[in-house]
Description:
There is one protein chain. The protein has 6 helices and 12 strands. The protein has one domain (3-192): 3-Layer(aba) Sandwich (Rossmann fold). The protein has a 7-stranded mixed β-sheet with strand order 2-1-3-4-12-11-10. A 3-stranded mixed β-sheet has the order 5-6-9. A two-stranded antiparallel ribbon has the order 7-8. It has helices spanning 13-22, 33-37, 49-58, 62-70, 80-84, 181-192; strands at residues 3-7, 26-30, 41-44, 75-78, 86-90, 102-107, 118-123, 129-134, 139-143, 148-153, 158-164, 167-170.
Amino acid sequence: APTIGVFALQGDVREHARSLETAGAKAVAVRRPGELEAVDALVIPGGESTTMWKLAETFDLLEPLRLRIKNGMPAYGSCAGMIMLADRIEGGIEGQQTIGGIDMVVRRNAFGRQVDSFEADVDFAGRGPLRAVFIRAPWVESVGSDVEVLARAEAGDRIVAVRQGPLLATSFHPELTGDVGVHSYFVEMVREL
Ligand code: GLN
């Protein structure tokens, strides 16, 4: 089984680890550069992207993350993790940086405030309906030509899942439902790459 790290400085780490294990991977927490070196792939959970960015800098993980992603490590970002994998963001705080890797513009908090959190069924990667939880979720404003759109929400208007080569991102939290469809898709990606 591939060893998949979960970025564990902030966010809902346990839920992703459990979904990854159900999907057939070995899940480990990543908090230091040495732990990042040891994994085949990485999940960046939901949480708060501004805090993730600051902690990644403080714990000397931001540059190592950029380097591993530049060198082709598969990564999956959910919600705040999607923001972290975006090359460009809208609605960030002053000076907010990302890891980058996916040629897209992501709008933070696009679906509204906390009270506007909602659940919906989305057709993910043509694999049929998947239960998705949106919590102060971003959406993808625009994508470059190398980015594949895997899911849309709000009557097809909003891009909520994308893939560019070894990088996968969703606006929503699949780890909060019993449905491991997205994690299985990612584990398959990691096995193929
Ligand atoms: N709004 C959060 C952010 O900007 C993301 C919310 C989430 O991950 N559930 O980072």
